[in-house]
Amino acid sequence: MIKKSLIALITVAIIVLAGAMFLDKAFIPTSEENRNITNTDTYSDLNIENDKRDAIVRTFSRQQFEKFVKNDRMKIIEKTSGQTDGDIPNIDFSKSPRVSVTFYDKDKNIISVKNPKLDIYDTQFTLSNTGREFKISGGIHLEQDGDSYIIPLNSIESASKNNYGTLTLGITYGYNNNSYVSYTAVTYSK
Questions:
Q1: Are residue 84 and residue 45 in the same domain, yes or no?
Q2: Does 72 share its domain with 166?
Q3: Residues 118 and 153 placed together within one structural domain of the fold
């Protein structure tokens, strides 16, 4: 009898502890050290005027990225979409913000890259239909403006079908005779 009660008490304690750990993780935004991760000699940083939140970015060599199976790509899209509401930057189209991306080398020096292009994906559709990436538009050229490259606001706005939602941005670029891809996500509101 005492043995059964002890087992039941331990089981309840484990369930409560697991639930507390899940809830703790579910409501904590992505930490700063986990926001911009790369295993290459470059990385990118997204900047949205009027929103000070740092984007969650993952950068890979294009060769490595193309070897990923669909499940790995879905995990990247899921990670860059944040852990909780408000975890990623928002584009408020009513304020016409400047949206730009800056590229850095491993020593945090700003670099010029070759032929940066943007692909836009519907995040909700892609994640709800595992294995199918839904590209809304692609091959959008980014124009250099000083140290940054401007993402045309109209290309993002035309990709946003609803009054609010989440879009995944895939940016491909070249540097030092290598090709790279960075993934990030933004929410939007009209």
A1: yes
A2: yes
A3: yes
- pTM for this model (two decimals): 0.80
Q: Are strands 57-61 and 36-38 parallel, antiparallel or unpaired?
A: parallel
Indicate whether 93 and 152 sit together in one domain: yes
Tokens 């050290």 correspond to 33
3-class secondary structure, 181: strand
CB 83 within 8 A of CB 139: no
Residue with tokens 């930490």: 31
- Give residue 7's domain range: 1-30
Query: Does 33 or 107 have the greater pLDDT score?
Result: 107
Tens-place pLDDT, residues 106-151: 899 999 999 999 998 887 765 666 555 677 777 888 999 999 999 9
Looking at the DSSP assignment, which residues form a beta bridge with residue 170?
Answer: 119, 183
d(CA 94, CA 52) in angstroms, rounded, equals 17
In total, how many domains does the chain have? 2
